[in-house]
Please model this.
Amino acid sequence: MSELDYWNGRLLKGAVSRREFMGRAAALGASTLAISTMLASADARADETPKKGGVLRLGLGGGSTTDSIDVTSYNDSVMIDTGHGLFDGIVEWGQDGRPHPDLAESFEPANGAKDWIFNLRKGIKFSNGQEFTADDAIYSLNLHRGDTKSGGASTFKPVTDIKKLDKYQIQISLNGPDADLPYALTDYHVGIVPDGFKDWAKPVGTGAFSLDKFDPGVRISLKKTRDYWKPDRGWLDGIEVTVINDSSARLNALISGQIDAINRVDHKAVALLSKSPKLQIVRASGGWHAVMAMQCDKAPYDNPDIRMALKLATDREQILKALFSGYGTVGNDHPIPPNDPYFNKELPQRKYDPDKAAAAFKKAGLTDPKILLQASDAAFNGAVDEGALLQASASKAGIKVDLKKEPADGFWDNVWLKGAFVSSYWGGRAAATQMLSVAYAGSAPWNETHWNNEKFEKLLADARGETDEAKRKPYIWEMQAMLNEQGGAIIPVFKDWLDAHLDKVGGHTPHGGFDMDNGYIMQKAWLKS
Amino acid sequence: MRIRGYKVSVTAQIGIVVVVINLFVALFAPLIAPFDQATPVGDAWADPSAQHWLGLDNLGRDILSRLIYGARMSIGLSLVITALSFLIGVISGFAAAVAGGWIDQALSRLVDLLLSMPTLIFAFVILSVLGSALPVLIFTIAILDSTKVFRLARSVAINIVSLEFVEAARLRGEGWWWIVTREVLPNAVPPLTAEFGLRFCFTFLFIAALSFLGLGVQPPNADWGSMVKEYGEMINLGSAAPLYPAGAIAILVIGANFIVDWMLSIHSRGQGEGA
Amino acid sequence: MLNLVLQRLGLGVLTLFAASILIFIGTEILPGDLASAILQNSATPESLAKLRLDLGLDRPAILRFFDWLFGVLHGDFGHSLANGRDVLTEIAPRFANTMFLAAYAAIVAVPLAIGLGLLAAIRQGGVFDRLVNVFTLMTISVPEYFLAYLLIKYVAVDLGWFPSLANVTPETSFIDRLYYAFLPMVTLVLVIVAHMMRMTRASVLSVMASPYIEMAILKGLRKSRIVVRHALPNALAPIISVVALNLAYLIVGVVIVETVFVYPGLGQLMVDEVSKHDVPVVQACGLIFAATFILLNMTADILAILSNPRLRQPR
Model:
């Protein structure tokens, strides 16, 4: 680092005055132009200091008339974002990809990661004035256990018991060791409410905001009624959410200034929008990935050569470009995204190769196997197009793929997990072991590829039980290699989350978990004066 | 130009040319289209070039070729569906008007019932009972449309049936077939033709509207309505892509309606002159 | 005359009852159910079973139908399965919005369409006739959301005359509502004018061919006078039925316009609820739509009878 860089860094941190900086820089022989550029960028940074006050207008897709404030019902952006405004969780999935304390101050494994102890924060008050204690945490976590309709139930399935150790300490016991339990608890369904709380129409939480108006699928307004307990969060006086499910309508509302920030920017529009001086695109690489799932125990996909032929016949670059305008990364037929700390960097990237695909297809030795991909835009927007692209690229390898567009309605009921070759998707999980358990463990209810491999099961159990990061890495790498080589999932792409906001919005940062800063926009955003 | 002794107006000539070209394109699509409709040939949303006159679509397929193949699917389907819905609607509408009494009431209320079922639910039910094959799509839309044709046909026919000369024919002992073919049909032709020209157009768009249910044209086959739907958002981004399929529909519909208008004018003159 | 109206009313109620049965059956055989529609791929068999039990989906359909009908007759449409809100309070403001937009569009579109149709008939074959026809045919050749996008792009974003979001709230004043809902209204008008205008033109022209109009022409009356005074009254029947169809569309078919303009009407609600299989809300919406259709068709029938003196005497 040169001396000039050092002084520039001090300037950016505010450790030297402008005057002193100019003197030092000139003494070091920097040109006037360079000095003024550095000063300007420092001024821009000063504008990055969060300010209190103002009402943020959000235009969000992913809302429905059927929405409810009940945390167990959350399944899309509008309620996930609102939930993080009203309630706090136990653990937060940080931008560095690791679990950070939220209402739990600290947490540590015991009994070989079969038990986990959570130390809760003291002196936090709910919006009704009651103090937050272990009973509230236990009640809130139990909303997703046992007899429940919660979408978070699968997260809590391995939990055998949650008990109170003292007023500010709880212990969660599992049916087997899991070194990644804190990651699991970052699930957006976990919102803490007071013990025995039931009246969701009048939510009580420890969150930054209180509910003002709730018109499901139309608009939600939140108000700040007291100081938030997190010193670096909760800047705004209020938030107005307008549910805008049409992506063009969302964009137009932002461009015409009726809305301050939107989620799910149409990838086709990004190039155009980035030219606009008035607004910023927030782009985050994440774990969301498209899947074309072949069931490994059904003909012809029980033949590993057929699986390999179809993987080689998939033109990933083309799918990424056509479906997401390139805003994403190509997949390597396993569900771990490149930004995950446990991503297998040494595994060669699979590429479109019609010749090799044709060879593998021939090697399978089947005469005219019937390959039918069932796709629906209910899986994700573009799934049918993805199928059409596979059809076209496979035909160049001499492989005939039939494509059936399934009705959007009832897709998850009647097609997914039932068809032998079906389009689907997975949202990312905070921990690699979670993603591998949820969709690739032999006994997992959502094992869409009917992948069942003894060696894989052993590796998975070992990885979950190992708390030493260096030791578990080879297990997780090995599992990725196995899925890449033999698995039933074609994973062509991981998509980026694309949000946008007007220049006056600060604190809207990229997060690989989900759109709008993994749903934490309400806590983190602030408005420039 | 004259057809069966009637002078064909300039607009009608344009209409005929448009319709004939469209039918030609639809019939010989594979021979005319410069590229395959399913194969990507370049980058998504590439601009028009010497090679690809209208540019490429969301998956990098040649838009002009998809438009040409789409003509086949769209025009064929729309014609079949509209014809079927008129067959059902007009026959039942006339029957209700001429027969009157309980037949009229039964048919009318049945149609009220069908009309009052939300399309979405109706389509869902059909879908879950009959599946999503092409004939099901044709059948579903034809039934839904025929209810609207029925209401129009009935209201036109009732007016005619109540006229003195029809009463006279009835008293003369003429059968209902005679009444329908000799009295009702000729007088009902103008509004029904006008309706046909429009229903035909609505059908293009309706096919696309139902496509999200999985009903209808299977990918990668193109149809104009779905093309407008898929490209629609691009209008915001300054691309002309959606204008091509929309324009194709508009030109065909306007052409067809020019012919309809000409037929209407012949009808009004023809009757006046007692032809 | 009164008898006729009463009889028609009675039949209407009967049809509505039949419709309620159909709607119930329809919602019964919808593929998939609320439980898995809500949970998508995060559904465990246990959470599905629990949700189904909560929703009462285990009871026989016939029992649930009569329960429902009994409730409806007492003004109780039940509670939303998805978020437990009372169905009536959920629907009422949405229905008011839908009716407002429909009325707004109808007040502009119906006189406009009939006026244009008459003018086109008077100037048959002239430049005005051709222009109006080509323009209206163009507007119906594109899907409504496409018209909406064009209006938003040019009128809302580029010119900034009207907002692109029509997200009215219960507190919005009447004048503001007219302003916010202007672009959705224009879109709907463009969608429905063509049909009514062309039907007016066609049926007036068809009447123009009849002998008594020939007489009037021979008497030397002005064409515009003949069209309005003599042809129009006799051409009303098909016009009325097409107007009724289009008004019905304004109430039950505007989902896409609502979505694009973010207008909180009944259509968006219906689509959300159908795709999530929230049966009580779907049934209530279905019933409202059915009642609207039946009422409109009945009015159209009665008007048609009134417009034709010969029909006033029942055969």
